[in-house]
Amino acid sequence: MSARTRAARRGRGWIEHWNPEDEEFWETTGRRVARRNLILSVFTEHLGFAIWVLWSVVVLSLPAAGLPMSVSESFWLVSAPNLVGAAIRIPYTFAVPRFGGRVWTTISAVLLLVPSSLLAFVVPSGWLAAQDHDTRFWILLACAAVAGVGGGNFSSSMANISFFYPERRKGFALGLNAAGGNLGVAVVQLLVPLVVVAGVPVAASGTRVHLAYAGLVWMPFIVVAAVCAWLFMDGLAEARADPRSYAAALRHGQTWIVSLLYVGTFGSFIGFSFALPLVIRTTFPEFLAQHAFVRDYLAGLGFVGALAGSVARPLGGRLSDRYGGARVTLAVFAGMVVATVAAAGGVLRHDFGLFFCAYLVVFACSGVGNGSTYRMIPVIFGELGRREAAARGLDPALTAPDYKRRAAAVIGIAGAIGAFGGFLIQQVFRLASTDAASAMKGATGAAAARVAQEHAGWSLPALWIFIGSYVLLAGLTWWAYLRRGPSHAPSFAYARV
Predict the structure, then answer these.
(1) Ramachandran assignment for 322, one of left (phi > 0), alpha (psi -120 to 50 degrees), beta (any other)
(2) What is the reported pTM?
């Protein structure tokens, strides 16, 4: 096999020469190696997402476990892992160049054992139950925050996989990688409500849960993921970018534009994934009272939205490969405006069916937008590389590696900022719920349901804020990437971003 068609290795798990743009190399060697790394990356990232959003379901079971929390405290418990996960995405992206994809995927998988162990052994312990309410809340908040380590896996995984695939296949590959991880949200919201009531008599449903199972169930899979990553994944020498790539990306305005768009797409997906089960519980208590199975075993159907968003993500990459990411992203924001208006109508009419269906559309649009926005990144920075080459009279091939590294850096940066958008969504909901939470304080049973029904419209101010944000982001997408305007304010329309 010629030097062009083989991946030269240096040491355990390292590939020295990697050229997926070479058709001969890709067909004979690259495709097989890339597929193996993608499969293992998806598995580990899936578990990372599952641990990250675990507390979105756990908070619903805290009252049944003898650890009741107020609405505001519950929103903080689902916000904490989102905030931590967003914050660590940048260092997780740096970790791939520092340690290599194989080593860091192994380490990031092992770290997932920490939050799962805290949930399995600390949260359901008699020691915690013996503490006063305020102490219990702060301990629970710390345990929830540690689950944020699962949120970092996404950035390191996406940055790593972006190096394995040629430009023409990046959209679908990155979309598939992200979708496999995003599916962890739906799986955890479907599986954990069933797991925590395992062994509980039917008559006792809703009054007693085994919270330890919510942590224990993931541990065997985490161990398998870590072992497989160590044995079968690879590190690419090309991926060992220096910090200058990240510094250069941070200085470029395109990084911040794309990051804002990702706040609207991925921020919506993860923010609503965390918050929707709690929003449903506090907005439609009478619906859940009439459908006990949905309440106790399906977490208010919140998992369906996350499933729709996850399945739609590869479609976003595929459509972007064909029509351009900017066009798809603009259509996404338009769809999210219409669907959120419909959700507000469901709240006003107190129609759970309308509200829920509208949010399925929001989730599906956010999933497509996740894929389309990420597909835009390598196209934008590839075009910037060609511009620089033309300005300096160079061969574009000479600037391409530098801009590929910048694109990988932007994937990490945008991922972190987008995840922070999820935290903002939850905090908007928390602030909007202040009056309802105050009215419900101390109320139980039928009284709590009555108060919740009287304040059923508490989420409307939050929904209108989201609608306005999507309109602004749609305008930004058109202005930066689709507008064919005067030369003093050029866009990327001609580059088919």
Answers:
(1) alpha
(2) 0.82
